[in-house]
Structures are given as structure tokens and as C-alpha cells.
Write a structure and sequence with these properties.
This protein is an all-alpha fold. Helix content is about 75%, strand content about 0%. The protein is built from ten helices and no strands.
Length: about 190
């Protein structure tokens, strides 16, 4: 009887070691802090502690997504991209995070084009198109710009026309850019 009690207590102690003591929001903020301090290994370890806990995963996702949104709103695109990449890699079914990642990648690409960034953007867009979800109209605007960059004006016009037909005027911050693309395509 004593051996059974000791065995049961040992099993309970091991199970307690496995449980996570920090609430999901706290872990989410630990991850954001680690990513903001370029400690991606620490962020990954914090996530690994809870990755098998469905409730934790569900509650950490919005914390991470909101952290990326706050970084973007503060003009810290690099930080937002880091969080979106991290979150996207750990939530393969997360469409919203991939849409935000595609938009952020495009903004980064428009600022400083590079082959690696372009491959990442293309891969993210291809993955999104493979899902059975309606994509935002601005995806066609990205396609138009990429076709312009590759000197494919016919494809650029088609994508731009799809964009204009579906665009509801939001976000307003891209209005000047939309007008520039329209003028460029009208002259080429």
C-alpha cells in the first residue's frame, strides 16, 4: 500500500512539473518582450512550454497579434514583422496573422526590395491563396505592384482593376499610393 501511495504522489509531482504556472497573457507578454529584445530563442522556449495546451495557445494568439498591431501602429515595422513571423510559424491555421504578415512584408519590400523578402512575400501570398477564404482587396494591389516591378504592365493593370473594383477606401493611408499606381499604369 505504501509503494502505491508513493507512486501516485510521484506521478502527481511529475504532472505538476509539466503544468504551466504562468497565465497565458503573461506568457504572451514574455514572448513579446523576448522578441522585442532579439531573444527569439527565449521566445520559442516560452511558447514551447505551452504549445500543447489548447487553452493557452488560444489565449496567447490574440496577445501576440495585438503586440504586432501595436508595434505597427508605433511605426516599428521590424518589430511587428518579427512577431508576425513568430506567430505565423506557430499557428499554421491562423489566416489573420498571415494576412497581416503579407501586408507587413509588402510594406517592408516597398521600402527596401530584396530577393529574400520577395520570396517570403510570394510564399505568404501563395499560401493565403491556397486557403478557402476571401482575401482583402489590397492583395490585388500588391500583385499589381509586383507585376509593375517585373515589367508586366498587362498583369499589373488586371490586378489593379480588380483591386479598384473591390476596394472600399480603407485603409485611407494607402490612397496616395493607389493614385500613384493608377497614374503609372495609365502612362504605360
Amino acid at each position: 500500500m505504501r509503494t502505491t501511495t508513493v507512486t501516485v504522489l510521484a506521478c502527481l509531482a511529475l504532472a505538476a512539473c509539466r503544468t504551466v504556472s504562468s497565465p497565458p497573457d503573461e506568457i504572451g507578454h514574455q514572448i513579446l518582450t523576448a522578441l522585442g529584445e532579439d531573444r527569439s530563442g527565449d521566445a520559442a522556449r516560452a511558447f514551447e512550454r505551452v504549445e500543447d495546451e489548447a487553452d493557452y495557445r488560444e489565449r496567447i494568439y490574440p496577445v501576440l497579434y495585438d503586440g504586432a498591431r501595436q508595434s505597427y501602429a508605433a511605426g516599428e515595422l521590424d518589430d511587428a514583422l518579427e512577431v508576425l513571423r513568430f506567430t505565423s510559424a506557430r499557428y499554421p491555421d491562423g489566416t489573420s496573422v498571415r494576412v497581416a504578415l503579407a501586408y507587413s512584408l509588402f510594406l517592408e519590400y516597398a521600402e527596401s526590395p530584396g530577393a529574400g523578402l520577395r520570396r517570403e512575400l510570394d510564399g505568404t501570398l501563395a499560401e493565403l491563396r491556397g486557403r478557402e477564404v476571401a482575401l482583402p482587396a489590397w492583395v490585388d494591389l500588391i500583385d499589381a505592384q509586383l507585376a509593375i516591378d517585373e515589367e508586366r504592365p498587362g498583369e499589373a493593370r488586371e490586378s489593379f482593376e480588380r483591386f479598384v473594383a473591390a476596394w472600399d477606401g480603407r485603409p485611407e493611408s494607402i490612397l496616395g499610393y493607389v493614385e500613384d499606381v493608377g497614374r503609372y499604369l495609365a502612362s504605360h
